[in-house]
Design brief:
This protein is mainly α. It is built from four helices and no strands. It has helices at about 1-10, 15-35, 45-50, 60-75. It starts with a helix and ends in a 20-residue tail after the last helix.
Amino acid sequence: MEEFLSNLESAGYSKNTLSTYRRVLRHFHSFLKLYRCSIDGFNEEELAFFLRGYYKTPASMRTAVSAIKHYLRFKGIVRKLNLALPEQESFKEF
């Protein structure tokens, strides 16, 4: 993961983006460990369910999915993630 983040830093990514990607990838690696999956053999529905515990809005989930896709491409894994985004209306204030 650190090699990936170093690569992004060299490419000029901001510190905020690097911090966000680091956090997302920690969650992703936690998911892989918890569900005992390999980086190229995980269930997308399980990943979506897991990530919804951390990312409550469609925008934050899109950012997380983007970071994971970017990381997978860096690792040489081409995979289209079709994760269901959380519904915005379910997070309206009462």
